Amino acid sequence: xxxxxxxPKHLITATGQRxxxxxxxxxxxLSVYWYQQSLDQGxxxxxxxxxxxxxxxxxxxxxxxxxxxPDLHSELNLSSLExxxxxxxxxxxxxxxxxxxxxxxxxxxxxxxx
Amino acid sequence: xxxxxxxxxxxSVPEGAIVSLNCTYSNSAFQYFMWYRQYSRxxxxxxxxxxxxxxxxDGRFTAQVDKxxxxxxxxxxxxxxxxxATYLCAMGYSxxxxxxxxxxxxxxxxP
Lengths: 114, 111
Fold this sequence. Notes:
The structure holds 2 protein chains of 2 kinds.
Chain A: E1 5-7, E2 10-13, E3 19-24, E4 31-38, E5 42-50, E6 53-57, E7 64-68, E8 74-78, E9 87-94, E10 104-105, E11 109-113
Chain B: E1 4-6, E2 11-14, E3 19-25, E4 32-38, E5 45-51, E6 54-58, E7 61-66, E8 71-76, E9 85-92, E10 100-101, E11 105-110
Parallel strand pairs in B: 2-11
Antiparallel strand pairs in B: 1-3, 3-8, 4-5, 4-9, 6-7, 7-8, 9-10, 9-11
């Protein structure tokens, strides 16, 4: 167990729908990162939050949004889902704003859009 | 051109062999380099971390960084079936918060 908790583990939903993925970082970590992993694109950075504030943004679609709450858990909201959004979504955490020593990943949420 | 290039494999070797995994990169600003191991249906886990050029050894694993060639390697000695996984190289620089990952090399160790 890495200490980073992601729920749900699996999600199957229809095109056009909206889903929320949840992440609890490792105890003491203030940064949360969201990544998307698909077969053809590999691990793609979506967004980072540090202590409740957005810190860095990557290749995140406008249909996707995230937030980090005062208790430091984070949610990734995916809306108007398309077939191409099917992927593994990983959350990772680190202690500081910068990831100089790497992240700790959760076990991911597998999203299937049908 | 991707910032980090990694041969996706798959790579299949017999148990006990030495495995060499490699990545090249284009951004000379990268300062730290990592290797992650990802088992099927699991999240990536940090295996090796190095800062700047040189070698770092940890048990059967050796990470090598050649910044002049923009080339990093991971060597696995006495490979075991339990080493079968996807290995992702990753890199970043101190002033940035995101880490850039290679696409991963799928490795299979045959008993």
